[in-house]
Automatic annotation (TrEMBL):
The chain crosses the membrane at residues 7-26, 46-63. It comes from the Bacteria. Keywords: Cell membrane, Membrane, Transmembrane, Transmembrane helix. It comes from Chthoniobacter flavus Ellin428. It holds the Pfam family DUF1656. InterPro entries: DUF1656. This is DUF1656 domain-containing protein.
Length: 64
């Protein structure tokens, strides 16, 4: 059974914590994509970045 996390008296679901961790992992990848101009290799950058975030989030949910 999953337990809620207590942040300053506010109970947060474990999924929310994983969502924040996935977002923190996504930020450097987004910056790297800007630096290497990933839009040259992908058809739609927004779809690519959304898929990347979903992959990070699902990996965290499955393995953590």
């Amino acid at each position: 059974m999953y337990k809620e996390f207590n942040f300053c008296g506010i109970f947060c679901a474990p999924f929310f914590v994983r969502l924040v961790i996935a977002w923190l992992l996504y930020l450097p990848l987004h910056w790297l994509g800007d630096r290497i101009q990933v839009q040259r290799w992908v058809w739609n950058r927004a779809v690519f970045e959304t898929a990347l975030f979903v992959i990070l989030l699902s990996a965290l949910v499955l393995y953590v």
